[in-house]
Amino acid sequence: MKWDKLLKLAGIIVIVAVIAVLAVKPVFPDVKWLPFAKLIKQGLDLQGGVHVVLEAQDTPESPVTSDRVKQAMAIIENRVNAYGVAEPIVQQQGDRRIIVELAGINDPDEAVRNMIKTAYLEFKTEDGTTVLTGRQLKTATEGTDQSGVAEVNLEFEPDGAKIFAEVTKANVGKPIYILLDNQVIQAPNVQTPIPDGKARISPYASLDEAHNVAILLRSGALPVKLEVMEKRTVGPTLGADSLDKSIKAGIAGLAVILVFMVLYYRLPGLVADFALVVYALLMLLIFAALHVTMTLPGIAGFLLSLGMAVDANVIIFERFREELWAGKTLRSGIDAGFKRAFVAIFDSNVTTLIAAAVLYYFGTGPIKGFAVTLSIGILVSMFTAITVTRYLLHLVAGSNLVRNVKMYGA
Questions:
Q1: Most buried residue, 156, 192, 321, 389, by most Cβ within 10 Å?
Q2: What domains appear along the chain, each with residue ranges and CATH number?
Q3: pTM for this predicted structure
């Protein structure tokens, strides 16, 4: 028996077991990052949120057109994405209406106000002359000054920077009024000319307030006037009871798969079960790290990729058994089995990834969520099936822990 391989195997099992326990039920309740599942955002169908119907209104300056409604949708989507909303749904209904669904919103009224603000920025001199507008603005970001006071940093486009340099040079010692939606938000005195096209607006009560203003300025003015026709808070479509039943059903199905793999493939099946646990933990870690929003379609994508991971192991083990029946040793049989199975696994996963890419490109909202989780799951399943399972099988075979080839399914 080779103790070094046995110790490696035991170490891997212990580490994965500890991570699995922490991921499912934290031993240390005060540690905020445990379990992993709490770091994964939930979509509207799992945690509820707000449903808003907006309608474009004609004005003398901006009559409603199809292009302007589409522009408004793009601006609204940029704004809600910048606020960190979990997988927002922004879609057009008819010629004039826009439906927006936002998950996990603590203040629906504030979210709606920020969505439909015009965010028209102007710089005016003391005599009321508008010298710059938001059209010359390149970017706006929140930050803090040296004393920790929240501010918004502005950077103008080249033409705007040139105008701003001339205006500040001509108005040293005089105020320049900064107006947002026709309201004066700052009237700073020009201390020195600003030739680089960069300015700061301060102070703000908090960094969050500065962040909100920066988002509005970056996303630009809405091309049409929008009115709120409907606004309602919605609960999870599954409900707590239904979600609990779905989780139990998923666990039961997974348990049947794990038992089947052990009974049919024996020791390799046990290794595959362990690799599936590693797969599930990796998926949780990736979802948490990438801030993936989990919705019902996303859960479906995860389960589908789990099924493909099982399918990959089945293909590998069938090839492995054939090599053992042909008289090869355990180590050579493992290598040959994986080599023969790789092409079939690779082809099936690549075609599924192509389908997921098409769904993501043409889909919206939950469809994109399904495509993202499916794609991540496929990549992780290939890694665990081809790398983790193979490495573990080599450790088991190399340790001489089990020498009877019948235990390997032969």
A1: 389
A2: 3-41+239-408 (1.20.1640.10), 49-117+224-234 (3.30.70.3400), 121-219 (3.30.1360.200)
A3: 0.58
